[in-house]
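Usage example:
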Amino acid sequence: MLRKDINELLTQTGPGSPMGELFRQYWIPALLAEELPENDCPPVRVKLLSERMVAFRDSEGRYGLIDEFCAHRGASLWFGRNEGSGLRCPYHGWKYDVSGQCVEVPSEADNSSFCQNVQLTSYPLVKIGDLLWTYMGDRATQPPLPEFEWIHVPAEQTYTSKRWQQCNWLQAFEGGIDSSHVTFLHSGGLKTDPLFKGAKGNEYNMNDTKPFFEVADSDGGLFVGARRNAEEGTYYWRITPWVMPAFTMVPPRGDHPVHGHFWVPIDDENCWTYSFDYHPVRALTDTERQAMIDGHGVHSKNIPGTYRPMANMDNDYLIDRAAQKRGETYSGVAGIAMQDASLQESMGPIVDRSKERLVPADSGIIKARQKLRKAAIALRDEGVTPPGVDPEHHRVRSAAVVLPRAESFLDSCRDAVRVTPGVPQSSV
Amino acid sequence: MTTATRQLSESARAASASESRYRIDVPIAPARAARVIALDERAAAVARHLAERPWAHARFFTADRPFGPEGRLRRLAGGGAAGGRPGAGGSEPPSESGAMAPGEMPAAPPGWVAAAPPDTVPDVPLDEALTGSDVVVVLATEDGGRDVAAAIGRFCGRRGITTAGVVLGDGFEADDAVAALRPYARVLLLSADESDAFELLTALRV
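Running the assembly step on the lines above writes:
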């Protein structure tokens, strides 16, 4: 349960809002690199944190993320001509470089300096891994670039997809630290999904439907440990790291690639879900990569040419009640990603958390909300840099381990939850 | 001029902001009969502070030391139901808190009894203190309370009472208490502070 004003604080990310300013302390994914595949390719509309922009890649391969609208008459630069190291508005020919600086106003005299005084808002756009990252905050406090492991392993070891989710970022993100739903909602996938099935850990998951949780602070956010019974005298632990504001990793299964998410607010009623799979020490197999492209695991099968899932609210998520009855899926919706999204979107664009009835097993969510609120207020009132900005905080991993019952997951897994290049993930 | 009407799917229509107006809106009564038990002195200070807040059903206790087979709990003044008046006495939650503010808490249930003055509430056996509860939140800062933790855990395990442990401070001094609670506590909040306990109780609507 959250008071309405606190719910608004956590869910509103537009300019000037406390949570919006918090998000603007971090590098966040802006789009996939594949969306700007070559120099002078068509520009792409990008809306992040309730700001409308266009991204483009100029003739020299430089990336730009600038205000969507021409300073002249407000026409959308999505219609622009990407040519000659700049984006030209097709209405009257005003041209901008990747920094948003106007470099040509054709109606002015040849030697006019007018354009030097025209500058569109712009943000840095940097390719790391398969993504283009941006920082939308004060340039004076721009942090070093992100160091999440999944974007720094060789290209053949990683895959990232994205999908449009039609709800506020917080209710999508909260699913990422809610380990207890897996046994129910995703139970079909544990048995059949090519990126999940076959792991010993799945048996523990299915044999013990009432996990116990331990929630501990980390430098960048939280570790949420979910514990289930394993063999006599042991527990099976699944450890989920959360790095503020919106990065989580799913604990691994067997030698399958490790997956996770980064949720980015588009506006207050929509978000992008970036989903990744990577393996710390080996290339993804062709079969694995194809499974990801086909929408298995945490990925979705999208409508070609878009990042909207084929199963979406406009077609009732292609719900198959017969498959539900046969036990192939728990909810009738196919695929891990859309099983989550269908329920999160069903809550409405921004769920009213004053109506919730939480239980102790929701403590990870309760704690995460508290940390977000405290960080947003500390930033607003005292200028405190929030956890998760420091790239050192990004060097975490999820883990799945079997431990003697007396052992603490925190003590036993200190190495397992840290990135060690060349060392495989801890998995069962 | 005619306008084509787009037929929304049932899911799209149901998930729209406009449809959220039609959700059934009734007050949510406090759902849980909580017992909050401090295992050691520093935890007791936190429990006393929490007990001053406006709870509906939560009752607060400290434990005898040492805690033998006949171990008893001392009821703290404050809390809700038979132990305190919702909205009474306590300091208000911090203004930035995500918890319900005073006055927003649901009304006290029928049968509510006024608070007993401090230090006049008699000690009660563990089973009497926990009878009727459906969630027990244990507060610990160090290992001295491990016997109590184990006893509470065993009792709650037998009675099907959900148990949560809140380990205050850095947790290094409470390893044994955590180990004693681990088999029984549905959730352990490690390296927590008073606000974590407050947020947990608030979220549980106790």
